[in-house]
Amino acid sequence: MSKQTAPRALTSVAPKLVELTDDVLFGDVWERAELSPRDRSLVTVTALAALYRTEQLGFHLKLALHNGLTKEELGEALTHLAFYAGWPTAMTAVTQLKSIAEEPEGPESTTTA
User: Can you tell me the distance from the alpha carbon of 50 to that of 45, in angstroms, rounded to the nearest whole number?
Assistant: First the structure.
């Protein structure tokens, strides 16, 4: 998978946000050696699920699978999260995970930050 970037379609609306996403978030923060991409994905997925940020969650679930987390590990993390962030939040995230894990083309396609 190539380096992650913000959706090009957003450039016409918020060019600086796209630039910061590309240069700072994916170009710096995600590249820092103190956490592996796998660990960063686990943190990001659980934060997005806990905060019910479902629009970004699908992208990051796909990225997490690409970064080495298994469907079972993500399912376990989201099950654990249910007790801290709420049952509906976890069920929504697990439903997205199931859908992504069952995609015929696999979890490789990612289109948003």
Answer: 8
- pLDDT digit string, tens, across residues 88-109: 999 999 999 999 999 886 555 4
DSSP string, the chain: -PPP---GGGGGT-HHHHHHIIIIIITTGGG-TTS-HHHHHHHHHHHHHHTT-HHHHHHHHHHHHHTT--HHHHHHHHHHHHHHH-HHHHHHHHHHHHHHHT-TT-TT-----
pTM score, whole prediction: 0.85
Cβ atoms of 49 and 89 within 8 Å: the answer is yes
71 neighbors 41 (Cβ within 8 angstroms): no
